[in-house]
Amino acid sequence: MTVFTWLNDQLLRMQWLNDLVGAGVAAFGLDPTSRIGGSVQFFVYDVIKIFMLLPIPILRRIYTDRLSVSAHKLATIILDGIA
Fold first, then answer.
1. What is the reported pLDDT for 18?
2. How far apart are CA 46 and CA 35, in angstroms?
3. At what angle do helices 55-82 and 35-53 cross, to 10 degrees?
């Protein structure tokens, strides 16, 4: 069970990124457990996470559009061959 918990924390929750940003915030002299340090950590972490995950739906849309165009061309070729 601990392997699945670790995978969930590292892959889905991006705990590694949160730890990395926390270390960066601490390097700038802010305490990540304070109100301002935690706010800065959350903001930077969330912006990086959004920019990491944003390409996924965009690439999926491009890939789906290409598949639908290819399927349409294939259907046209098949129907032209039947007629």
1. 92
2. 16
3. 20
**What is the chain's mean pLDDT, rounded?**
84
- 44: burial class by Cβ within 10 Å (0-12, 13-18, 19+)? middle
Residue with tokens 């990491």: 52
Do residues 41 and 23 make contact, with C-beta atoms less than 8 angstroms apart?
no
pLDDT at residue 33, rounded to an integer: 94
Which pLDDT score is estimated for 1? 66
Indicate the residue type of 37: G
List the domain boundaries for the chain. 2-82
Residue with tokens 């940003």: 21
